[in-house]
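Chain particulars:
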Amino acid sequence: MSNRDKRLLGILGIAIIGLILYYAMYRPITIKKQALEEEMVAIEERAATLRVEYEKMPFYLEETEVAQTRIEEIQEVLPAELTQERAFKLLFDIEDTFSDINFGNVTFSNVETLAYSNEENDGTTEMAIRQNVVSNLDLSYTDLKAFLRYIGNYEDRTVLTNLSMNLLEEENKITTTLVMNMYGLVGAKREVEPVIFDTVPKGKIQPFDSPNLRITPQTVTNRVSDGTGDLFIALKPTRADGYAQVIGLTNDPGQRSYVTGDVDGVVQANLRIFIENGNYYATYVMNGITKSRQAFEVGQALELDLYASKRVDANDLVGMNLTIVNQTQLPLYINKIEEDPTNPRLNIVSTEGEVN
């Protein structure tokens, strides 16, 4: 082999070694360096962004504290369970706040789940729940506004979602059908607070019969009776259950026709019975509270049942002065189902038309 060939082979070997070193060592290092440089640029950009956010840290901490306080406020008005006891407490609180509000009939829905905080369904899951309370009320315009304000500020989250109103002009009342939604938040970490009611006194001195009781009145000469009162008056001590004075239609389990009072004294009342288009109506007033045009069906006789319990003692002053106007062709019979024989609670001041 000539010297020239040897030099060519040497040059070729050096070139091959150079290529091997380039592709095996230098090029990977170059690529890695470029990648590190690009990563460094991204890190520097991320660091710059975080530096700006870090400067806002006090603001974020303050906002987090405000948000946590708001969460606690929301949780505070959402009870950890919904039961009929809690719904009854709502109704009792309303009745205690408004002297003219009495719930005659109430319907409760089943408790329904509205949403879950997550899909794990474990100890961390919280559930938003709801229960409906449906009822009817007769309110003055002033009481209606105060009632709406009271529901909006009630301690347990309650929303009036449906309100139907009808004006009764003669009575200056608004009859309503309303739906109240009670909301709660259930979770394993939420403590259930028991519903506590005021102590209910036991052992009333004077238990009292129901006005829906059917009693055949004592025989009266030439009297027609069907054994069923059309209207009733109830008078009893303020220490007994319920109201001291009540006037209403006998066949009214919802008590929408009732006028009630709880006065430990004599109240003034007026009763007018009349016919329009063949239908019987009663309008009655007690201490300024009026029920107008209360329609009822008359059987064989027009009858008013009196439930007036015996007086407990000399301090039991409950009574009623009643004026009766009977503008029908039928006689009105007053059935004294119960009355104090020595000091009657009911005093008929005057009558117009036939009243027995």
